[in-house]
Amino acid sequence: MVWVTLKKAAKYLFRRPYTRMVPKSEPPFKTDHTRGRHILDLNKCTGCSLCKMVCPANAIDMEHIEVEEGKYPQNKKKIFPRIDLHKCTYCGLCVEYCPFSALSMTDVTGFELFTTDKSTTLKHPQELAVPPESKYRVTITKAMFLGVLQNPQVKPAGKGGSHG
Amino acid sequence: MAGESVSKSLMLYFGPQHPGAPGNVAYKLWLDGERVIDAELVPGFLLRGFEMMMENRAWEMNIVIGYRFCVEDPDSLELGYAEAVDRLLKYDIPEKAKWVRMIQHEFGRIASHLFWANHMSGSVGLRTTGFWSIAAREEVLKWFYKVVGHRIYHSFSVPGGIRWDVPKDFKELTLKTADKIEELVKDIEAALLKNSVFKARTKGVGVIKGEDAIKLGITGPSLRAAGVSYDIRKAVPYENYDKVKFDIPTGENGDSYDRAVVRFKEIHQSLRIIRQAVEEVKPGDPWRIKLPLTVPPGTGIARVEAARGEYMIHVVSQGGRKPYRVRLRSVSLPLMTTAIKHVIKNEEVTIADFPVILGSLDPCAPDIDR
């Protein structure tokens, strides 16, 4: 009978809707592992370009920046990643494969990154180094991947050792 | 294809923008009055060459591409790729990773079935239950957002295990989500399956009998609805599926109604698996082995029981940083071509029935355009 459907529907008639009125009455839904805009630590980046190589969306380029002499001695060529957030899929592989923990991710995502000006989606190294304007948390860090616990009985096959 | 009698009839283009079309595919329908005489699939709207893309990228980068074959059920493909590379590398991944992968796989199946419930109830004109199933799916997506950090595409199951440790409140979170979903799904089931309109539209429509289904290459819930009790999770167990208890729900008639019933029963079985698996996830256990820099030559084959049926992922390595070949066995191609043709040949299908039959088979458009 159709009555079954109507009976069940009556139950849901007075329930709070699942739709969230963001940002009018509620803040956006964020969690401890939300993958959003990156943060770059210029003091740690050596310009090794691993993040560029591992990016599946080709969103990362290396850019030379002009700095005062003696600044960032670890980065001889003075090249730092420049991330196009328009292309980025927020997979976090760049954070995972950065050998010096220079890149990490924040929970600034979704509508906070919306813009009418496409040119602002391209974040230069200096812009990436500055934390986002709004309230943010650092969510994805290299430390999460460093906590990898190797199973002692299993040795990885192949010539190359593990890298991390 | 179009015979002499067919050529005189009207040709109707169905899709890709049609709300009844299962994603980005079109059909050429030959009509005689209201009756569909022949249907021809027009694929290619989503062609990106995923397999070729994967062959041009390094193994770890493919984690992010490997699941984009199917938008609605990415977790099965994610698991399939990770499993295939594990077998190629002869890895025995940590137990904790296996259990978490299984939970992710089952939640992915639930999300996919709930999305199907929306599509199915829409195609019979019962939009109300569709909204409820999207609400129930929202609970799954919230779980993913908390554990994995993304809603739709997760990139969490990787070769060697899982990407990062699960949160501290993983067990409570998972059980709470499972309870919420169960409550909603019971209501959707009652409202949709007992509805007389739904019964009238689906019973005896789109019948595919057991032996025909095997011959046509159909797998998954559509095969089980035809009475064939075949599930890769039982037949060739992967991960830890041999250590959990669950049943394979089967139908009798193989019509659209049975396929709907089987899918709802599968959601309950998935919840049962999740509740068993979450007990085995212990904090502090190892959860990953790192990939080596270069992968030795060899092949790896993984078969996974996805929400729609059997995916087989075959990876071939000739050494080095990139795969030599990646091949995917598509679930949806037999559903969209041979199965639908078989139904049209054997019974009187009207235009109104066509989206219902197609919806009950639940094909996924992108995986034929790989």
Care to describe what's here?
Chain A is an alpha+beta fold and 164 residues long. In chain A, 20% of the residues lie in helices and 14% in strands. Chain A has five helices and six strands, in the order αβαββαββαβα. Chain A has helices spanning 2-13, 50-54, 93-97, 125-129, 142-146, and strands at residues 38-40, 60-64, 79-84, 103-106, 122-123, 138-140. Chain A has a three-stranded antiparallel β-sheet. Chain A has a three-stranded antiparallel β-sheet with strand order 2-3-5. Chain A is elongated and about 75 Å long. Mean pLDDT of chain A is 83; it is low at 151-164. A three-stranded antiparallel β-sheet of chain B has the order 1-2-3. In chain B, strands 6-7-8 form a three-stranded antiparallel β-sheet. A two-stranded antiparallel sheet of chain B has the order 4-5. The mean pLDDT of chain B is 89. Chain B is globular. The relative contact order of chain B is 0.19. Chain B is built from 14 helices and eight strands. Chain B starts with a helix and ends in a 9-residue tail after the last helix. Chain B has one domain: Cytochrome-c3 Hydrogenase, chain B, CATH 1.10.645.10. With 370 residues, chain B is an alpha+beta fold. Chain B is 47% helix and 12% strand. In chain B, helix 4 (74-89) runs antiparallel to helix 5 (95-123), helix 5 runs antiparallel to helix 6 (127-147) and helix 5 runs antiparallel to helix 12 (256-278). Classes of the chains: A alpha+beta (164), B alpha+beta (370). At the A-B interface, helix 1 and helix 3 of A face helix 3, helix 6 and helix 7 of B.
